[in-house]
Design a protein that fits this description.
By secondary structure, the chain is α/β, with parallel strands linked by helices. It has helices at about 25-35, 55-70, 90-95, 130-145, 180-190, 280-289, and strands at about 1-5, 40-45, 75-80, 105, 110-115, 150-155, 195-200, 205-210, 210-215, 235-240, 245-250, 255-260. The two termini are about 40 Å apart. The structure holds fe (ii) ion (FE2).
C-alpha cells in the first residue's frame, strides 16, 4: 500500500515565507502526476490548502486547489487546516471539495486510516481549543476494530520541540492542541495506533512515543528550511505487513524506515519517575541512562 502525501499547500497570494510569484498549483499538479506514475494507491492531503485573505478570495483559490486535485482519479483523503477555516466554514469546504470533512475511517484492508478532524480554528491569543467530544469519537473508533491504525490530522499531537521552527519557537501554543498530552495518553491506552501523520509545523520530523510514530511532513510551499527556494515537498509512505517506509521528496528531502505495528503489540515500558524520588543515589540512575 502506497500513500502519496502532500500538506500545507498554502495556495494564495499571502504567506510569510512564500516566494513571490511562485506557482504552487503547478507543483501540486506535478505531485499528483508523480503519485500516479509511482504507483500510489491513494493521495493524502494534510490541510492548509490555502493562505487565507478574504472569504471571496479564499473561495476562489480553494476552488483552484480542488480543481488541481481533480486531475487524478486516485482515491483522496483530505483534512482541513487552520487556514482553511479562518475565513471559510467547514461546510464551505465540504461544498467546494464535494466531500465530508468530518472525522472518518478509511478501511485499507490490513489496517485503517483514520482522518481525524477536531476543530482546527485558531483563537487569538490562546491557539486551538481542546478536542473534547472529538477525542471521545477517536477512542471509540480505535477500540471498535483490532487492526492497526494510522491517524491523519493537520495539527500534530507529539508535543515535539519547536526550537528552531520559524513560526512556533516563540509561539508553541499554536503548534499543537492544549490537551495534546491527554490525547496521547488516551490513544496510547488503546494500543491500536501505529503511526500519526500531520502537517502544520512546516518541517519534517519523527517523534516516537510509546511505540507510536508521530510524523510531520514539510509544507509544499515553505522555504524557511530551504531558502531561497520553496521546499516543494511531497512524500510517499509505503506500508508493508511489518514496515513503514517514508520518503519526502523536493528541496527538503527526508527518509526513514521503521516498524509498522500497533503500539500495543510491543508496549514500551512506562517512563520511570523522577530519580530524586528514588531511595538509591540518583547519580547511579543517571549513569544507567
Ligand atoms: Fe500551514
Amino acid at each position: 500500500m502506497k500513500i502519496a502525501i502532500v500538506t500545507d499547500i498554502h495556495h494564495g497570494p499571502v504567506s510569510h515565507t512564500k516566494k513571490e510569484g511562485w506557482d504552487g498549483l503547478a507543483v501540486l499538479a506535478g505531485f499528483i502526476d508523480w503519485a500516479e506514475e509511482n504507483g500510489a494507491d491513494m493521495i493524502l492531503d494534510l490541510g492548509d490548502h490555502i493562505s487565507d485573505t478574504t472569504r471571496e478570495n479564499d473561495l476562489r483559490v480553494m476552488g483552484e486547489v480542488v480543481a488541481a486535485f481533480g486531475r487524478s482519479k486516485l482515491p483522496r483523503v483530505h483534512v482541513l487546516g487552520n487556514h482553511d477555516v479562518a475565513k471559510l466554514s467547514v461546510a464551505d469546504n465540504e461544498q467546494i471539495f464535494g466531500a465530508s470533512m468530518q472525522s472518518r475511517v478509511h478501511d485499507l484492508g490490513a489496517f485503517r486510516l483514520i482522518a481525524w478532524q477536531p476543530d482546527v480554528e485558531i483563537r487569538w491569543p490562546h491557539g486551538f481549543v481542546e478536542t473534547g467530544a472529538h477525542l471521545d469519537w477517536l477512542i471509540d473508533t480505535l477500540n471498535a476494530d483490532p487492526r492497526p491504525a494510522i491517524i491523519a490530522t493537520h495539527v500534530p499531537v507529539s508535543g515535539h520541540s519547536q526550537i528552531g521552527n520559524y513560526y512556533f519557537e516563540h509561539n508553541p501554543q499554536f503548534s499543537t492542541y492544549p490537551d495534546h498530552e491527554r490525547i496521547r495518553a488516551a490513544v496510547e491506552a488503546t494500543g491500536r495506533v501505529a503511526a500519526w501523520l500531520s502537517g502544520h509545523v512546516h518541517w519534517n520530523t519523527i517523534t516516537t512515543i510509546a511505540g507510536i510514530r508521530h510524523i510531520t511532513i514539510q509544507s509544499m510551499s515553505e522555504r524557511f528550511t530551504t531558502m531561497p527556494e520553496p521546499a516543494a515537498a511531497f512524500a510517499m509512505l509505503e506500508i508493508t505487513e511489518s514496515e513503514l517506509d517514508l520518503v519526502v521528496h523536493g528541496e527538503d528531502p527526508f527518509a526513514a524506515r521503521m516498524p509498522f505495528r500497533a503500539s500495543g503489540a510491543r508496549p514500551w515500558m512506562q517512563p520511570t519517575g523522577p530519580f530524586s524520588q528514588r531511595e538509591a543515589a540518583p547519580e547511579l540512575e543517571v549513569l544507567d541512562a
